[in-house]
Structure formats: structure tokens, C-alpha cells
Amino acid sequence: MATATRLVCILLLLLTALCCQSLAQRAPAVPDKCCFNFQMKRIKRDNIVDCYLTSPECPHQAVIFRVKSGKEICTQASKAWVKRYQQRFQVSSFSIPS
């Protein structure tokens, strides 16, 4: 009788573990980086080496600029200078290497 009870307990534990795993897989994705503080001054264009948008799941829409020193700087996506920089950077990054 004790063996049957142990078997039932093991099966219940396995079932619980499987249910928890499937629920965890359905959880919404957590964004890697979100911005909460923003650079207000314009960044020198020559210092920028890369840029990307934050995830739509972030509370604030932002563009992150990576500069030559490796630092990543959060900027407000709605700022005119940020939009200009982003467009210029995207155009130059799509050029075909010779």
C-alpha cells in the first residue's frame, strides 16, 4: 500500500512540474532594455556607432545610441534630432560594402 501511495505522489509531482513549465513558457516576454532616464542634449553624430529602438513592451518609446566608448545612451524617440540621427544611421548602415 505504501508503494502505491509513493507512486501517486511522484505522479502528482511530475504533473505539477509539467503544468508549471507550460505556464512559464506562456508568460509574456520581458524586454532586455528599457529607458527611464533620457539624454536631453544632442549627441555628436561622429561619436555614434550604432542605434536601436527599445522594445514596444517598454513603458517609454526610446532610441538607444551606442557611442565609440561603448556607452549606450537613451534618447526620446519623439525628438526631432533623434529621428534625424536614426534615419541617417539606418541609411548609412544599409550601404553595400565594396
UniProtKB/TrEMBL annotation:
- Read off the InterPro entries from this record: Chemokine_b/g/d (IPR039809), Chemokine_CC_CS (IPR000827), Chemokine_IL8-like_dom (IPR001811), Interleukin_8-like_sf (IPR036048)
Q: Name one GO biological process term.
A: chemotaxis
Family matches, as PROSITE patterns? SMALL_CYTOKINES_CC
Q: Say if the entry is tagged with keyword Disulfide bond.
A: yes
Subcellular locations according to the entry:
Secreted
Q: Where is the signal peptide?
A: 1-24
Record-linked Pfam families: IL8
Keyword rRNA-binding belongs to the record: no
Q: Main subcellular localization, coarse class?
A: secreted
Q: Spell out the molecular function terms from Gene Ontology.
A: cytokine activity
GO cellular component term, pick one: extracellular space
What sequence ranges are listed for the domain Chemokine interleukin-8-like?
A: 31-89
For this UniProt record, give its keywords in alphabetical order, as a comma-separated list.
Chemotaxis, Cytokine, Disulfide bond, Secreted, Signal
Record-linked SMART domains: SCY
Q: Which family does it belong to?
A: Belongs to the intercrine beta (chemokine CC) family.
Full protein name:
C-C motif chemokine
UniProt organism field? Grus japonensis
